[in-house]
Here is the input.
Amino acid sequence: MKLDYETVYRAVKGNHDAQEKLMQYYDAYISALSTVVEVCSDGTEHQYVCEDQKAEIQTKYLEALSKCKVIR
Here is the structure.
């Protein structure tokens, strides 16, 4: 998937569909940021995506997006 200027512009202006495209574009990156590694008592590691952290990052991203200025 490739982002174009119009999609970003519409997302900043509040278009829900464009914002959803941005969220899809950055989903793997946000999931990586939200990945938690737990070490069990036997020394094995368990990785998982913390859905609470992921939702918080997505919310903060959308809040920041609405404050962006786009030069046309």
Remarks:
- The first strand starts at residue 35 and ends at 39.
- The first helix runs from residue 5 to 12.
